Amino acid sequence: MKTLIAAYSGVLRGTGSSILSALQDIFSITWLNRSKVEKQLQVISVLQWVLSFLVLGVACSAILMYTFCTDCWLIAVLYFTWLVFDWNTPKKGGRRSQWVRNWAVWRYFRDYFPIQLVKTHNLLTTRNYIFGYHPHGIMGLGAFCNFSTEATEVSKKFPGIRPYLATLAGNFRMPVLREYLMSGGICPVNRDTIDYLLSKNGSGNAIIIVVGGAAESLSSMPGKNAVTLRNRKGFVKLALRHGADLVPIYSFGENEVYKQVIFEEGSWGRWVQKKFQKYIGFAPCIFHGRGLFSSDTWGLVPYSKPITTVVGEPITIPKLEHPTQQDIDLYHAMYMEALVKLFDKHKTKFGLPETEVLEVN
């Protein structure tokens, strides 16, 4: 009898160990799956923004035009009526939504790369600012995540400062896309909008301008740190006219997330790109990232490379209603010097060698 009880106890102990082992296996599998699910959510969150950036405006325009030819034509009429009355809203800073800026999808977006915002100096809420963002990269993903969402807590790092990321005015002529952009605090990069925000919207405004624009995007490639700035002086003139302080920003890693076919100067490809840039405002790039399900395939999903956006020290700018060319050149030179110093001070912290030089074109 004692022998049977001992044997039974041994079986129970064995069964208990087996059950415990099985439970551990289940939990480890669950954890693994959760990790994979989270990574896929990150990929999807990035892809939805990339597709929105590339095709949302055109797709919604086509759908709206088609709706005119269906029984739902009244919906299209109502939206176009709304569009007419709301046409100038983007020029007045848009219609930002804290709810949209705090969507969980942006935290997945941030963690995919990951993206980090580094503050080096405090900003006074009694002043207005023009942030110069460098480099453009293919899509300016760091600029979008840091200043059009709250994923990196820009409002907590710079309390009392309202960031407005400026982009092509043509985007705000696209139905639905314009609403999506405005909800994040994105505005047109034109003189009317900037004049309004810096003169009629109080203080504490920060307009983020990707200074290099389309021209800079054409030279975007992994391993290259170059900015198009030497002849870009319009933002300095605007800063002087409104007495808005200039803040240089360098985003380490912005050029690493996509690979691009670079056309040589004088080639037919570069000729086409420059014509688009001149007449439409953007330059079409032939680029690729990774695939949706595998990093070993090509696709539109950017590569998951760290992007670290460093916000530099503000340069105090006087208010001059009619700045001379000499004034513009002086503060432009100060800005270029500040940007190079910012790059040199932080480059080794983010994986670049001490010998790396920022190329200013």
UniProtKB/TrEMBL annotation:
<keyword id="KW-0012">Acyltransferase</keyword>
<keyword id="KW-0963">Cytoplasm</keyword>
<comment type="similarity">
    <text>Belongs to the diacylglycerol acyltransferase family.</text>
</comment>
<keyword id="KW-0256">Endoplasmic reticulum</keyword>
<keyword id="KW-0472">Membrane</keyword>
<keyword id="KW-0551">Lipid droplet</keyword>
<feature type="transmembrane region" description="Helical">
    <location>
        <begin position="43"/>
        <end position="67"/>
    </location>
</feature>
<keyword id="KW-1133">Transmembrane helix</keyword>
<dbReference type="GO" id="GO:0004144">
    <property type="term" value="F:diacylglycerol O-acyltransferase activity"/>
</dbReference>
<dbReference type="Pfam" id="PF03982">
    <property type="entry name" value="DAGAT"/>
</dbReference>
<protein>
    <recommendedName>
        <fullName>Acyltransferase</fullName>
        <ecNumber>2.3.1.-</ecNumber>
    </recommendedName>
</protein>
<dbReference type="GO" id="GO:0019432">
    <property type="term" value="P:triglyceride biosynthetic process"/>
</dbReference>
<keyword id="KW-0319">Glycerol metabolism</keyword>
<dbReference type="InterPro" id="IPR007130">
    <property type="entry name" value="DAGAT"/>
</dbReference>
<dbReference type="GO" id="GO:0006071">
    <property type="term" value="P:glycerol metabolic process"/>
</dbReference>
<comment type="pathway">
    <text>Lipid metabolism.</text>
</comment>
<keyword id="KW-0812">Transmembrane</keyword>
<dbReference type="GO" id="GO:0005789">
    <property type="term" value="C:endoplasmic reticulum membrane"/>
</dbReference>
<keyword id="KW-0444">Lipid biosynthesis</keyword>
<dbReference type="GO" id="GO:0048471">
    <property type="term" value="C:perinuclear region of cytoplasm"/>
</dbReference>
<dbReference type="GO" id="GO:0050252">
    <property type="term" value="F:retinol O-fatty-acyltransferase activity"/>
</dbReference>
<keyword id="KW-0808">Transferase</keyword>
<dbReference type="GO" id="GO:0005811">
    <property type="term" value="C:lipid droplet"/>
</dbReference>
<comment type="pathway">
    <text>Glycerolipid metabolism; triacylglycerol biosynthesis.</text>
</comment>
<keyword id="KW-0443">Lipid metabolism</keyword>
<dbReference type="GO" id="GO:0046339">
    <property type="term" value="P:diacylglycerol metabolic process"/>
</dbReference>
